[in-house]
Amino acid sequence: MAPPTIRRPGHSKKAQFSAFTGYLIAATGALVGGLLLVVALWKPDLMAVLRGEATDIAAPVGEVGAVTRSGSISLFDTVSGYFNAGAQNARLKREAEVARVRLVEAQAVETENKRLKELLGLNEDELKPVTFGRLIGSTSASTRRFAYLSAGHDKGVRPGMPVRSPTGLIGRVLETGNSSARVLLLTDGASMVPVRRAQDDVVAFAEGRGDGSLRVRLINLGINPLKKGDVFVTSGAGGIYRPGIAVAVAMEITRDGAIAHPLGNPAATLYVAVDPVWQQEARRELETPANARNTPPAPPPEGSGE
Amino acid sequence: MIGERSRSPRRGRVGRTINRDYSPFLANALPLATILAGSLAPMLPIIATGPMVPPIGFMTFLAWRFVRPGLLPLWIGAPLGAFDDLFSGQPFGCAIMLWSLAMLGLEALEARFPWRGFWQDWITAAGMLIAYVVLCALLAGIGMVPRQLMLLIPQLLLSVLLFPIIARMVALFDRLRLRRVRILR
Questions:
Q1: Positive or negative torsion for Cα A237, A242, A246, A248
Q2: Looking at the complex, does the CB of residue B104 fall below 8 Å from at least one CB of chain A?
Q3: How big is the A-B interface in CB pairs under 8 Å?
Q4: Distance of CA A57 to the CA centre of its chain
Q5: For a pLDDT cut of 70, what percent of chain A falls above it?
Q6: Within a 13 Å sphere around the CA of B134, how many CA atoms are in the beta-carbon half?
Q7: I want to staple B160 with a disulfide (CB 3.0 to 4.6 A). Which of A128, A159, A161, B126 is the partner?
Q8: Which segments of chain A does DSSP mark as H helices, in order?
Q9: At A39, is the secondary structure helix, strand, or coil?
């Protein structure tokens, strides 16, 4: 392709100046961008308001797509389901029988639990979700893992609130717009959730690795007690996440913990629930403006798992 | 050429030619509109577990620069990058800087190699895209270890392979841009 001759300024002083100004403004743009970048890395939530506004405007576009996504995901499952339908049917029947017995047992435990709690005078207020919303998109081209939520400030969503799907924790709200919010997914490199093993009190942190898996780091070092298939739930430390939300299942054991797979799949859920911040102190701390929201919740005090 | 002419004397490649002219609004707004739409790719209903989707906004931006050099002013990288930053998940300022630098870099490259072709354009775009994706990952605000840079490989491959298709699409939009829709009186 021939070079465009029209852009050569030639001897015209005016054309030369305008070409020069173009270069000057472009270089200034790059410089200003660099400065903004440094500021943004230093204080990540500085542009939160602007981003919130922009997402509010663009969110309706995403919402249309989110409906199709939840439909199209089940398509693959349907197709793959045909291949092992018979074996799966038999297995599920067996599992259902076992589950029915377990359910009755669980109900018994629950009533006993309630009775014991009444005896102790504990009254636990049931945490109701603040609101429900769809995940309308994610930063799929970036190494950061953010998702956009279709509910915002007007529905009571505030930064710091946990977001979960029926199968497990998904992340927490980072920034809110008026009708949309930005969610920091569990798998983001900056996300850190205090967890414990579901069956006992082995406490750990679940950090995002940026590739869809989590790194579980034990707090008490020593002999690694974890096994493949261990399920981790939130421990409630830090006060943001209420205890007992399913987080991840260990896939691979490492020296100081495990590599785990998150249980809540943000892509496969129709709706996600936004929970209130669990404890009053954490709620207050999140509301103070000086608090940088990108820092992980405070580590639990020594030896306490709950 | 002759065959094209003989079909109809009044219809060219850009629609009816007699008594018609292109619309200045469409001619100027369409490139910007397509780049902004490309920047809105995070609003696509993909909840990705890792960086998978190529930077469509940046690719459209590069493609317009290749298809029509001089159409986008030199400084356009800053405002378009700012819009991209609002949705991309990168810290604000990342695309402002990188898009401006890309514009300056392409200008310098064009001064050095004025006669361009398909392969040269593709190699240039591939180099630019690889640099862009890797720099974005490094500037994302989380520490990158070599293992995480390996995660970028599928995205890099996809970006490089997808670029000619995006360039073709932009060429299509370019024809749409210069369609003679305005009726002269």
A1: negative
A2: yes
A3: 209
A4: 22
A5: 84
A6: 13
A7: B126
A8: 13-42, 48-81, 85-120, 280-287
A9: helix
What 8-state DSSP symbol labels residue A303? T
Tokens of residue B75, six digits:
């400084």
Residue A194 predicted with pLDDT over 90: yes
Give which of B87, B132, B174 to mutate to test A binding, by max A Cβ within 10 Å: B87
Q: d(Cα A89, Cα A301) in Å, to the nearest integer?
A: 47
* Beta strand A246-254 pairing with A257-262: antiparallel
Q: Which of A32, A47, A140 to mutate to test the interface with B (most CBs of B within 10 A)?
A: A140
* 3-class SS of residue A232: strand
Question: Residue A242 and residue A288: Cα distance in Å, rounded?
Answer: 21
Are B75 and B27 a contacting pair, CB within 8 Å?
A: no
- Non-local (6+) Cβ contacts of A217 within 8 A are A204, A205, A207, A256, A257
Burial of A252 (0-12, 13-18, 19+ CB in 10 A): exposed
Confidence of residue A243 (pLDDT cuts 50, 70, 90): confident
Question: Radius of gyration of chain A from Cα atoms?
Answer: 25
Q: Are A214 and A262 in contact (CB under 8 A)?
A: yes
Closest CA to B62 of B134, B155, B125: B125
In a 13 Å sphere around the CA of A180, the CA atoms on its Cβ side amount to: 28
The minimal CB distance from B100 to the residues A4, A33, A137 is found for A33
Q: In B, which residues are within 8 Å of A65 by CB distance?
A: 43-45
Q: How far apart are CA A282 and CA B97, in angstroms?
A: 37
Q: In a structure prediction context, what are the per-residue pLDDT tens digits for chain B, which is 185 residues long?
A: 454 555 555 666 666 777 888 888 989 999 999 999 999 988 887 788 888 889 999 999 999 999 988 889 889 999 999 999 998 888 899 999 999 999 999 988 888 888 888 899 999 999 999 999 999 988 887 766 777 788 889 999 999 999 999 999 999 999 999 888 888 87
- The question of ipTM being above 0.85 is answered as no
**Closest B-chain CA to A262:** B49
pLDDT at residue A255 tops 80: yes
Amino acid at A90: A
* Token couple for B23: 């619309």
